[in-house]
């Protein structure tokens, strides 16, 4: 098995991962190994697997990606795999979980950590414990984003009556954000959606995408702040309790619809803050190391 004997279970607002350190580049996992470890009945269980390795030891990276990590001070790379074994460009919750793991292993000094991902180098800042957000909170500089035309897609869920309008957002990985419980949605309330079933987006987007279903709960125009509730079906793993890039895509869409820049968003795994500007987006939330596991 190309997995080390000792791994760690971690999560960030319920988005859970099997993580491990590979300083010598000896343990690049196969798709079958990822699927086995991520299996919630026959393995450890998780929405994905994260190998923390040096960029030069990640076989799918090209020379330009490795050089970008070096130029931006990222000694370590988040080699993230979805639960089905497929490669993933980015995982906002995963960056916080693996940064806490790196911090506990003494891999960086100070409050700032530069982490390579397939969507570029991300900068994480340790904020400690933050009221309302939890313990071991990190702010992630998620970088540039792009958005398509508002409400350009129809989103349905097989077996569920109704539809909603969705907006495409590129966070380094693809998202379609659909508002529910508004004038353009005939889907059930966000709490009642069946997200075990994979949503359908029309017209079809070339690549598979994550789909977020969102309700606006409150807006304070004086403070330029809003509150919302979100659920998500992630490609490669189905519904998850939280999705970092999905939270960012949600805040970007809500900003376009309301003009509000700062959002506190509740997902099934907890509460996070997202701050959006024209140039970038910041995601702030907690991370947890659950325990160490010895594989037999």
TrEMBL record:
Pathway: Amino-acid biosynthesis; L-lysine biosynthesis via DAP pathway; DL-2,6-diaminopimelate from LL-2,6-diaminopimelate: step 1/1
Subcellular location per the Swiss-Prot or TrEMBL entry: Cytoplasm
Keyword Isomerase: yes
Catalysed reactions listed for this entry: (2S,6S)-2,6-diaminopimelate = meso-2,6-diaminopimelate
Family matches, as Pfam families: DAP_epimerase
UniProt GO MF annotations: diaminopimelate epimerase activity
Keyword DNA-binding: no
Active-site feature positions: 91, 243
Site, as annotated: Could be important to modulate the pK values of the two catalytic cysteine residues: 175, 234
Gene3D superfamilies: Diaminopimelate Epimerase, Chain A, domain 1
Alphabetized PROSITE patterns for the sequence: DAP_EPIMERASE
Enzyme Commission code: 5.1.1.7
The entry's keywords: Amino-acid biosynthesis, Cytoplasm, Isomerase, Lysine biosynthesis
Binding site for substrate: 15, 82, 92-93, 173, 210, 234-235, 244-245
Similarity-based family: Belongs to the diaminopimelate epimerase family.
HAMAP family: DAP_epimerase
Subunit-level organization: Homodimer.
Function: Catalyzes the stereoinversion of LL-2,6-diaminopimelate (L,L-DAP) to meso-diaminopimelate (meso-DAP), a precursor of L-lysine and an essential component of the bacterial peptidoglycan.
Protein name: Diaminopimelate epimerase
Lineage, broadest ranks: Bacteria, Bacillati, Actinomycetota, Actinomycetes, Bifidobacteriales
Gene (UniProt): dapF
């Amino acid at each position: 098995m190309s997995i080390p004997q000792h791994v760690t279970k971690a999560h960030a607002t319920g988005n859970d991962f099997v993580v491990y350190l590979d300083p010598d580049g000896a343990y690049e996992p196969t798709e079958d190994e990822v699927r086995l470890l991520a299996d919630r009945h026959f393995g450890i269980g998780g929405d994905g697997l994260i190998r923390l390795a040096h960029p030069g030891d990640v076989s799918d990276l090209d020379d330009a990606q490795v050089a970008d990590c070096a130029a931006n001070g990222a000694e370590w790379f988040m080699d993230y795999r979805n639960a089905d074994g497929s490669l993933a460009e980015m995982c906002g919750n995963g960056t916080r979980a693996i940064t806490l793991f790196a911090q506990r292993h003494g891999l960086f000094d100070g409050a700032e950590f530069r982490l390579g991902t397939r969507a570029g180098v991300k900068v994480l800042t340790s904020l400690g414990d933050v009221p309302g957000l939890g313990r071991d909170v990190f702010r992630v500089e998620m970088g540039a984003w792009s958005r398509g035309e508002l409400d350009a897609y129809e989103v349905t869920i097989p077996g569920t009556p109704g539809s909603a309008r969705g907006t495409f957002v590129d966070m380094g990985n693809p998202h379609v954000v659909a508002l529910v419980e508004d004038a353009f949605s005939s889907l059930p309330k966000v709490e009642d959606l069946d997200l075990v079933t994979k949503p359908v987006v029309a017209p079809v987007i070339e690549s598979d995408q994550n789909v977020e279903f969102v309700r606006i709960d409150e807006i304070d125009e004086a403070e330029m702040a809003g509150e919302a509730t979100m659920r998500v079906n992630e490609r490669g793993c189905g519904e998850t309790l939280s999705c970092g890039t999905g939270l960012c895509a949600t805040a970007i869409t809500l900003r376009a619809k309301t003009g509000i820049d700062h959002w506190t968003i509740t997902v099934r795994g907890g509460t996070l803050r997202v701050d959006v500007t024209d140039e970038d987006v910041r995601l702030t939330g907690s991370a947890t190391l659950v325990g160490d596991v010895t594989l037999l």
